[in-house]
Hints:
This protein is an alpha/beta fold. The protein has twelve helices and ten strands. The longest helix is centred in the last third of the chain and has 30 residues. The termini are far apart. The N terminus is likely disordered. This is Succinoglycan biosynthesis protein ExoU.
Amino acid sequence: MYPCAGASARMKVSMMEEAKRKTVANVSDDSVCVIIAAKNAADTIGMAISSALGETQVTEVIVVDDGSTDGTSNAARTADDGSGRMRIIRFDINQGPSHARNQAIAASSAALISILDADDFFLAGRFSNLLAATDWDLAGDNMVFVDQKELRGFDASSIKRFSSEPRFLDLPAFVERNISRRGKQRGELGFLKPVIRRDFLDRHGLRYNENLRLGEDYDLYTRALAVGARFQIINNCGYGAVVRSDSLSGRHRTDDLRQLADADKALLESGVLSGEGREAVRQHERHIRGKYHHRQFLDTKAQGGLGAALGYCLKSPSAVAPVAQGILSDKLDGFLQRRGPKASEAPIELRYLFTGSAAE
């Protein structure tokens, strides 16, 4: 999308033509297309699809089988409820979540876009709560994190109920909440899976950055906020995120970190940021770039030994500080883990992206 102005202009024209081809005038303002990009998700995609089709506002469910080898498409067909709302797009070669989602957006016609990961699920009534207000461009809700070990026999009634307490995110607050802190449970707002108005995406020429296989949600929301998106969030919990030890997001490549830092850099150089928003993105870029340098140091050491790793630092002086900090933090984390309780001894409890007042 950026930084190439010519490419951006061509994309905007393409989106306008795409919008003209669709009979959007006949689509309800609260019609929802749920997009599920899936790779080797045969064991979980049925739950995701069923939760989406169970919502009355959902008029389309588009599953993109992104080069799966485990029968994901067949599992998706088995979960179809016969209402004619579900479609499957199949790629023989994996293209990544951003490309998959962009293809699904192009193939859909609903007024609202909602992303659902293939191993996650919606809680019943999610869209009734999210769509209660209308003065927004993106609307997100609370998330409950459920350990995959607890899924069998999971009782949704155990999820806490919070009063809605709608509020709006600004760019500095959103970006700051995407800088992870060692020693704290992950709670980045990039985890959010908001409903997004198609007309907002089209007006501003926004789509997922297909260079990214990590942080693609964060990047899209940040660019949306940068051009003035009204991003509403409510405390009510409507999205279940399954915590898996083998999740794709937990197995990202070192170069994925570089690509995400480069996306921040491109936004900084685009000229659309100023003030606190620009400083927040700059801090995020430094944070991700530092993680990249640390991982690259470790990769270089594993492949070529300590001498090669030290050589990497000499060639990239800006890497020295984050590498040193990363090594010290790794040592400290290892010490604390040895001193702490065994993982099997720790109780598994439901965790929420953010807390709020209990519902009356």
